[in-house]
Amino acid sequence: MPRMQVLTPNVSLPRYLVAAVTLCLAIPSALLAHEVKSPDGRITVALDVQEDGERQQLNYQVSVEDEVVIADSTITFTRNDGVVIGDHLRFESKSEPTSHDETWKPVYGERSQIRDHYQAQTFQFADTAANCSMAVEVRCYDSGIAFRTTLTSADGKEIAIKKEDSEFAFPKDAPAWRTTSAQGVYDEVPLSELGSNVERPLTVKLNDNRYVAVAEAELVDYAAMRLRSTENGQPTIVSQLRGEVTSASPMTTPWRVVMIGDSPGDLLEHNDIILNLNEPCAIADTSWIKPGKVIREVSLTSKGAKACIDFAVENNFQYVEFDAGWYGHEYDDASDATTVTLDPKRSAGPLDLQGMVKYARDRDIGIIVYVNRRALEKQLDEILPLYKKWGIAGVKYGFVNTGSQEWTSWLHDAVRKAADHQLMVDIHDEYRPVGYSRTYPNLMTQEGVRGDEATPPTSLAVTTLFTRNLAGAADHTICYFDTRVDKNWSHGQQLAKAICTYSPWQFIYWYDAPATSGQDPRKSRNRIFDSPELELFKEVPTVWDETRVISGEIGEYAVIARRSGKEWFVGAINANETRTFSLPLGFLSAGQSYQARRYQDDPTMDTKTKVRVVTSEVDSEDEFELKLSANQGEAIWLSPAGK
User: How far is it, in rounded angstroms, from Cα 52 to Cα 57?
Assistant: First the structure.
C-alpha cells in the first residue's frame, strides 16, 4: 500500500523515543497494516485505514507470496440519505485471529468431501461522520479470500443502503471474460473497459500462471451484486447492487469473494470456497433429496408420459419433467397451478397427471413439474403441500424475478418452503447460484447459463466452464438428437458435456422424446434413436466423489475427469482449431486394470451420430492421445476390469 499515514505523538516523550516513534510511523502503511494469512501462508490480506484528502478510508490488499493480485481497494456504502459510510473511519479494535479446519460431506456435489480451512479475523471501525460502526470480517483460504461487512447504526435505527462500493483494484489492465446477462454471451475485454452491470463470477487473467475470479456467496436477503468498471480508466472494478437494501441494524452483506488459482482449471477445482461461505445444511433428514438424470415430457399426454417413464426405467434415468402448459398458459395470470388444465396451444391431451405420478412412482421414477413465476407468486403456499400430496418429487421454478432484495429474499424463502414439503427445486431462468444449496440442498440446480437450447458456440461452452460454473451447478440442457448438434457441434461433444458441465439434475435429450406406441420411428421427429454410444448417458452419474481438471483454456478447450465410486469419466471439449491432447491416466488407482470405453467423433461412421465406440484395457501407467477437430469432443468411461 503506497500511501503513508504519519501520526504525531500527543504525549511528552524523551527526544530519542519521539524520533523512534516518528520513524516507525513514517514507514509505508503496508508495513503497519493488519494482516490475515492463508493456512499455507501464501496468500495475505492486508488492511489499514489510510488518509486520502479529508477522508480516512479502509484499504485492503491481497497478495500471493510477493505478487499483488488486488491492489489498494476501498469499501464504502452510501445510505439513501446520501451519507457515505466508510469515508471517515477510525480503527477501534480487532478480534483475536482464528483458524478453522473441518472436513464436511455434502449431500451431493462435485466432490464427496469438502475441506473448510481458513484463517479469519474481524476488524471494527467507527465512522465518525455517519454515526455508524463498520465491522469487516475477513477469511483467507489457500484458494482465495472473502470478506463481508456489518454496519450498525449508533441509534439502532433501520439501515437503508442505496449503494455499495466494494472495490477490487487490479494491479494491471488484464483481460476479463464479461457478460451482462445471466444467460448471456461472454466476450473478452480489458478490465478498464468492463462497463457496467457485469455478471459474477468475473474471471480475470493476470498472467499465464495467475487467474482471479470475483464472486458472491451467501446472498440470501440482500440485493444481488453485479460489477462495473470505474470511470477513470483504471483496472478497478466495483460492486454494483441491483437495487436498494433495507435492514434492521445491524446489517451484514453477503460475502465478496476473490478466488485465486494458477490456471482456469485450478479455479474450478476449488470452487467449493463458495459452498464453504454458506451455512451448513439446515435439513435434518435429507434422504428424500436425490440427484439424477431427467428427460423432459413436452407432449403433455398420458401416452407420451408413459413412453418417457418407460424410457427412464430402461435407460437409468431418475426423473421425468412435465414442462410448461400442463396447468394452462404459463404467462396467463388466470392459469391455476392447482389444476391439470392443458394449454390447448401445447397439447390436446388427454393427460392424467396424478395417474402418471403413480405410474412413475411404482417404477421408482420421480416426477418434476414446471410452474411459472406468475402462479408461484400467487399460489406458492397452496401448491407446495398439494404437490407433496400428489406425490410430486420436485418443482421447476420458471422465469423467476431476480436481483432486487425483495425478489432475492422471496426466492430463497420459496426454496425453504419447498424443503418443508420435501420438494426439490430447479430454478430458471436468470438466477445464478451463491452456494445456498449447501444450506438447503433441495435446491438441486439452476439455469443462469446460456445452455444448449440457446445454441451457444463451443467457445462459449468452454468459457462457461471457467466463469459461470465457478459459482456452482448449471442446468445446461443437453440436446442430443436435435439438428443443431450436427450444424454447430458434434455428438462426441454432447456426450462430453454430460461430464464436464456439473448439474445434480442433468437434463438430457432436451428436444427429444421416445416414440409412443403407434408411431413410425422412421417418421417421428421425437424418436430417440438407437445408438451404441447412448450407453454413456445410461451409465454416467450426475454427482461426483472427485473432480480434476486435466487441462483447460478459457474459450478454447477443457479436459475434465470426474470419479464416482471406483469409476472415472472423462470429458474433452475442443473449440476453435484442431488440437491433440495428452491424457495421462495417473489418476486411476495404481495396480488396477480398467476397461476404457472411448466415445469418439468419426465422420466415416455410417450412423446418424457419427460416434465410434472403442474399447481397450488400461492402467494408471497408460496415456491416451485425444485428437479433436474444431467443435468436437470425446467422452471416456473407465471402469475397473471385471466389473
Answer: 7
